[in-house]
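hey so i finally got around to running the thing on that chain from the lab meeting. sorry it took forever, my laptop kept dying and i had to restart like 3 times. anyway pasting the input first so we r on the same page abt which one it is
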Amino acid sequence: MRHLTHSLLFVLLAAAPAAAQDTTVMIQNKDCTVTVDGKRLPAANEKKACERMRTASTQIQAQTVRLQRQAEQMAGQMRTFEESGRLAEARAGVAERAIAGQMRAVESARMSAEGAARMSELRNLTSRAMLAIAARPRLGITIDTRPRDTDKWGAYVSAVSPGGPADKGGVRSGDVIAKLAGKAVTGSGDETPGIRLITMIGALEPNKTIELQLRRGNDSKTVKVTPSDEDSFFA
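ok and heres what got predicted. didnt touch it at all, straight out
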């Protein structure tokens, strides 16, 4: 318990004389003396005033302790709420990161599955193209089977075999074959015009002359080519 020294103002009604009922009294509780208008009260009245002062001081002190405890409890509750809020935010952040990770895993698995299916389809198309290349007849050209800007016109010729059917017919490297024997050389889905042309060449008859419609730069040109069944030429 702290040692308190109070300077309190009291209006003594019961302890002071009737003529001095409105008199202001200063009480020093260190030695508990009471004076009224500079005069010390009689011992009995002074004792009553001191007891009232001590009672009031004890009540004030007890109320102050209760208020301090309540303040500490409220502060503890606030800290608990703050910690609970931070914990909830942390848990929410962990859950959000976990969900995001799962979504990325699902998306990665989906893309992997799509990529595997696409690769399988491309392998099938390439196998078909290789079978067509091995088949007769041949025009003596090398065809770019990769996707290109020129695919909107036809199949791109990347090389021409010297002395081959295409070379004799006037086909040059860099030409784009738009039509073969009257049929448009167009791709479909993952099948580029180059792959399509290889398949179309495989369906020709050897030594039977056909027409090729070419795009050379901004010009169109039609040439005649006789497919060969010699293995020394490219497609």
